[in-house]
Structure prediction request, 236 residues.
Amino acid sequence: TETSIALTPIQSQMFKTMTRSLSIPHLLYADELDITALSRLRQTLNTKTPDRKLSYLPFIVKAVALALQKHPLLNSRIDDQTDPARPRLIMRPQLNIGVAMDTPQGLLVPNIKSVTDLSIIEISAEIQRLSALAQQAKLAPQDLTGGTFTVSNIGSIGGTYVSPVIASGNEVAILGLGKKRVVPSFGDDGELRRKEVMNFSWSADHRVVDGATVARCAESVRAVVERVEEMVVELR
Prediction:
């Protein structure tokens, strides 16, 4: 016998949000990044500070923030309410990066405010704070509002590829991360090496963002993730 179950408040909001997102023509872009150097750096840092474990996510969030500074269109929002006949882009100097979280209540996307002003350790601490509050259903309204870009780390659960959906009407792009994989790779000298890779899948609002812009931003992220020393050079 079938049973009728009412949607939870979060499911109801998700239903409305995802239905609204169908009106956005999504541009999809995916690539595989070599995270071997990042993995080594992370392991070294975690060995030196065992009481403060760093995941890959804070590094990637920081890399995205650095890239968005160079490609601000992906951090903008569309204003089609002031004059529906003439939509405008609102460029935003502040980078508040949302992190999609799986919680007992459902999908929540709290955001880290002013990522450009934070260190990797501070970003990690903020992710842990938001995650703990999300699991307890204690996120404050300010934690859930004001986001300018979203990162979805679905790979922490499983899955190599993802086609992320722009769920916020205040954003024009989103990045989905696949799970880390170890693959064989040939170096420039022809020698077989062990390589760690992760798939980065981007979605953008194709009404205002073209493929070349997404590709350039994705390459900026690659430059930082694959050559982590560049992240150190660009940190403030």
DSSP finds seven helices and ten strands in the chain. The CA atoms of residues 20 and 71 lie 26 Å apart. The helical segments are 9-21, 36-48, 57-70, 120-135, 141-144, 211-226, 228-234. The longest strand covers residues 192-205.
